[in-house]
TrEMBL record:
Alphabetical list of SUPFAM superfamilies matching this protein: ClpP/crotonase
InterPro entries given in the database record: ClpP/crotonase-like_dom_sf, ECH/Chromodomain_protein, Enoyl-CoA_hydra/iso
Lineage: Bacteria, Pseudomonadati, Pseudomonadota, Betaproteobacteria, Nitrosomonadales
A UniProt-annotated Pfam family: ECH_1
UniProt protein name: Enoyl-CoA hydratase/isomerase
Species name: Sterolibacterium denitrificans
Keywords: Isomerase, Peroxisome
MF annotations from Gene Ontology: delta(3)-delta(2)-enoyl-CoA isomerase activity
Subcellular location, record wording: Peroxisome
Main location: other
Length: 259
């Protein structure tokens, strides 16, 4: 099997491609480890000035592999499970982080964007935060960052009703910088990355730090509390029913569970 996380470093830009298209780029534990390793390597490498992440045209990522959640729920404390290591890593990057998104961007495929510095979306991009409909709860500080970005009412639509939304709405709420034809989105993100890579690296990093510093401690604290709840929800009967229903290709029945 091909490595589902591909990386390339060129002209100061470190590019990560999620490449498991037959499963809509759903992320397994091994893929989270590869992603976190790639981000760590990019942060350490002095030649890297900017990091870009993308999938394929029409697929960013369908989020966590639900089979993995069912078979190997990430419950351990130490070391942190790969999914939570990945969240910690992208939320504390010092170098600029750019996403190019087209097609499905589900779960962490959307929450990750709240931690990017620049986000470009293809017209086919379809974002969704289905945590509640999976019996789970928000992660990656989305319970803090999304209402701050979009306001409570729109964040509630996304996080409580789990309604998918398109690139135009994502642009309107400030989640993405620009909407482009799908076939141009990665090239545009790379062009923006090259522009950033040509600027004084220390000033770029300092400015990123200044933009984020007021919220950094709160983000870390929120993520810790979300992780605690998320782990409890992962083994809840509601979540097990939701995961099983996805693979059985049926609607979950949450009516059978009391509060
Ligand atoms: N975990 C595991 N497998 C997944 C997956 C996921 N998150 N998302 C998609 N897949 C698999 C499907 O099971 C299917 O596999 P199969 O061909 O062996 O049956 C394949 O990827 C294609 O998915 P499919 O549902 O047929 O594509 P679609 O275009 O109709 O729908 C999605 C795409 C992303 C809207 C839909 O697959 C989906 O809702 N996935 C679950 C998303 C999710 O809840 N993620 C977790 C967030 S925490």
């Amino acid at each position: 099997m091909n490595d589902p996380i591909l990386t390339e470093s060129k002209d100061g830009v470190f590019c990560i491609e999620i490449c498991r298209p037959d499963k809509k780029n759903a992320l397994t534990s091994a893929m989270y480890t590869a992603l976190a390793d790639a981000l760590d390597a990019a942060e350490r490498d002095a030649a890297v000035r900017v990091i870009v992440i993308h999938g394929q045209p029409g697929i960013f990522t369908a989020g966590n592999d639900l089979g993995d959640f069912l078979a190997n729920p990430p419950l351990q404390e130490n070391p942190p499970p790969p999914v939570f290591r990945f969240l910690d890593t992208f939320s504390s990057l010092k170098k600029p982080f750019i996403a190019a998104v087209s097609g499905v961007a589900v779960g962490v495929g959307t929450t990750l964007l709240l931690h990017c510095d620049l986000v470009y979306a293809g017209t086919s991009a379809r974002f969704q935060l289905p945590f509640v409909s999976l019996g789970l709860c928000p992660e990656a500080a989305s319970s803090l960052l999304l209402p701050a970005l979009a306001g409570h009412a729109r964040a509630a639509e996304m996080l409580l009703l789990c309604e998918p939304f398109d690139a135009t709405k994502a642009r309107e709420v400030g989640l993405v910088n620009a909407v482009l034809p799908d076939e141009q989105v990665v090239e545009h993100a790379l062009a923006q990355a090259r522009k950033l890579a040509a600027l004084p690296a220390a000033s770029v990093r300092l400015t990123k730090q200044m933009l984020k510093s007021a919220q950094q401690a709160l983000i870390a604290q929120t993520m810790q509390s979300e992780v605690r709840h998320f782990k409890e929800r992962l083994v809840s009967p509601e979540a097990k029913e939701a995961f099983a229903a996805f693979f059985d290709k049926r609607k979950p029945d949450f009516g059978q569970f009391n509060q």
